Structures are given as structure tokens and as C-alpha cells.
Amino acid sequence: MQTYESDANIGNIKILAVDMDKTLLTDERVLPQGLDEHLDKLAEAGIVFCPASGRPAPKLEEMFGGIKNRIAFCPDNGACVIYRGNYIYKSNIDVALYHKVLAHAVEDPRAVPVLCCYDDAYVLARDHKYHDEISIYYSAINYIDTFEGLDVESNKISIFFPAYDAEPAFREIYNPAFSDQLYVTNAGREWIDFMNLGVDKGAGVAHLCEHLGIDIADAAAVGDTYNDIPMLERVGHSFIVDNAEEHMDAHAKWRIPSNNDGGVLTLIDAILAAR
Asked: Where are the beta strands (DSSP E) in 145-264?
């Protein structure tokens, strides 16, 4: 697989959409040192930076606190898009449909169902023991005795698998059961996410491009795993980090250094140098 230096049109990039976990973030789940300066230079060059993640909007915005109103966000795997502090796209799941998924997950002894509602989330009180893991992604968690009767705006259902067996559960149960009604994807080895059909990171980046009047051929994406595939295959410039799972080679054109080696920063330097 070719490295990023082989992208002859890298200087044409106008939007840079970047996955978070194991792509931008180090293995310790922290932002790479020097990111602020790199994002300032991107902004000066008129290039829109867009974290694209399965994480919800509040957690993403929290991570980029000082500049959150100057960049874009593609949270919840594209189930909403934010540009300079304003929602430009939302996709709510039908209430009856999310109850169908939740009811199935409640009966699965491996599963911890989470109903995602933009600014907060709903989790069963029985699963409070997983608070430390869930709270990495959600600040406002409502613990309830049952999902029955709940009627709130939700754009994503997530299921946490504490034993890190989300991949077989996805293949054997959840994708066959729900893929005709919802977009179902693995977000790493411990999560399965459900969004409306047609919703994914690629569609989210496309909504941002349309809003800004930018050709998606001039958008770039960086990722490492399954839920990044739609945006990698949709944009004109697709990159994976060197630590990406092996199967991801088929879904991107170029490779950059790993998350722990500041691969995204290296890519930003290359984009700016080419301009």
C-alpha cells in the first residue's frame, strides 16, 4: 500500500475528517502533542477540520473546547453533523424501532444497551457497574429501571460488549436481525452501533461538503476500523493509520504513520506543504 507522499493532489484537500479512537488519539486516549498548532495552521489555510467519530457531540466538543465553534464535527457515526456550533443535520430513529433493538439487547447476557440522545444517554440501572467505560463517551447518563415507555429523540443505539466480543455478535446476531431496518456497524471490538439506513460517517462528511459547497473529491478522511469504511470509500483522499486493522487496506488509498506516532499531524504537515 502506498504512503501519503504518493497522493499527487494532496494540496487540493479542503476538508479533513478524522476518526478519533486509535486514529487521532493515542493508545492512552489523549490528543497528540502539537495538535492545537496544526489546527490553527489548517484554519489559516481555509481547510475545515472535522472529527468524525462514534462518540456523541458533547464529548467530541469537550475534547476541542477552545476551538469547537471554529471546526466541524461528525458525531454518532454521522447521525448528526455540526458546523461552527450549529447542527446542520440530524437523523432521529423511529421510537418503535429503537425499542425493538433495545428489547433484543436487554435479553442478550453479553450486551449492555445504551440509547444515545445527542446530549445524554439512557442505560439500565442493572448495568451501572459499567459506568466507568460508558462515561468515557457520555457525560450525562440517565440510569433507568426499564426502557419500556421511553419516548425521546435518539439518533443512535449503542451496545457495549464488556468481553470484547462485539464482532461475532455483529456477524451472527445483530447485523442479520436489523440490517434491513438500520445501518449496523462495529465500532471497535467492544461496541455495535445502530443508526438509520443511509447514515454513516461517509454520509455525514457528504452533508458537510454539501453545506459548505465543497466537492467531496476535495475531502480527505483518516480511519482505522470498520465504521470508518463508508467515509474512506466516499471521499477523494482516503488514508489509514499504520496501526489500522489489516482488512482496512482494501478501503483506503494511502497509509500514514500510526496514531502513537502522530500520523494525523504528519498528514496535516504534508497537506500544508503541498499548498
From this structure: 156-160, 182-186, 191-196, 219-223, 237-241, 254-256
Query: What is the pTM for the complete model shown?
Result: 0.88
Question: Residue 196 CB: number of other CB atoms within 10 A?
Answer: 19
Given a contact cutoff of 8 angstroms between Cβ atoms, the answer to whether 272 and 41 are in contact is: yes
Q: What is the pLDDT of residues 224-274, one digit of tens each?
A: 999 999 999 999 999 999 999 999 999 999 999 999 999 999 999 999 999
- Which residue, among 60, 116, 64, has the nearest Cα to 91 in the 3D structure? 116
Q: Answer yes or no: are the C-beta atoms of 57 and 76 closer than 8 Å.
A: yes
Query: Cα separation of 167 and 223, whole Å?
Result: 18
Q: Would you state the cell numbers that stand for residue 117, as one nine-digit string?
A: 440522545
DSSP state letters, 44-96 = HTTPEEEEB-SS-HHHHHHHTGGGTTTSEEB-GGGTEEEETTEEEEE-PPPHH
Residue 94 CB partners (closer than 8 Å, separation 6+):
none
The pair phi, psi for residue 133, each rounded to 5°, is -75, -45
C-alpha cell at 162: 464488556
Phi/psi of residue 266, each to 5°? -60, -40
Residues in contact with 65: Cβ distance below 8 Å, sequence separation at least 6, in sequence order = none
Closest CA to 186 of 60, 32, 21, 17: 21
Q: From the centroid of its chain, how far is CA 186?
A: 11
pLDDT digits (tens, 9 = 90+) for 188-205: 799 999 999 999 999 999
